[in-house]
Amino acid sequence: MESMKKLQWAAAIIFAFAVIAAALISSFEIAMYSDFGFYEKEYEKYDVLSDLDMTMEDAMYVTREMMSYLRGEKEELSVLTTIEGREQDFFNEQDRFHMGEVRELFIGGLNIRTGACVAGALCLIFLLVSRADIKRLLSKSYWIALGISAGAVAVIGIASFVDFNAVFVRFHHIFFDNDLWIFDPAEDYMIRMLPEGLFYDFVMRIGGLFVGMLAVLFLLSILPAAVSKIRKKQCD
Known about the structure:
Elements: H1 2-33, H2 37-45, H3 48-52, H4 56-70, E1 80-83, E2 86-89, H5 93-129, H6 134-162, H7 164-175, H8 189-193, H9 196-235
Antiparallel strand pairs: 1-2
Helix pairs in contact: 1-5, 1-6, 1-9, 6-7, 6-9
């Protein structure tokens, strides 16, 4: 009996972290793909078009093609467009190599989300079959997972606010084993289109979405207890 309770707790904790992992990766996807108007606003904010000598229409065409590539919908990152008054490929070989690595990370993240959803579903089935006290277990396990996740988000958020460049560089050192993510704006069009400020704004956008999702999940986790208290008062 005691071993079954431990298994149920383990399943509930795994379920909670699986839901949070899926929410985090979904926050990335929503931030990057749900509203391409956000890119337009960012390009205007950082005067990207002047740096590239491009029209907004051409810049957005390049952006959509690049984002399709990151999602695995295009095999090659090559986009002919008009830059500085002449038609040429927007991306060079260094761009293609680095963005190939970024694509592997992004698609890997989507696969992790799929795996998290499968793991969460299996844990939920186990809890149902084993007749666990699902409301209590899932609520408490989510609070535990939320506390850990909120702590991590707070640390990254504060660090990004204090020195985003240091966090940005650290991220690349962790996920890439080369220096080909370092570009020269004088020679590379892609880094002119994607200045550091744009990445900062995206991190804030992703963070806002993720925190919002966590808040909704928290409200859902306390809802059963709140409903029970209301019903108990009505009965009394």
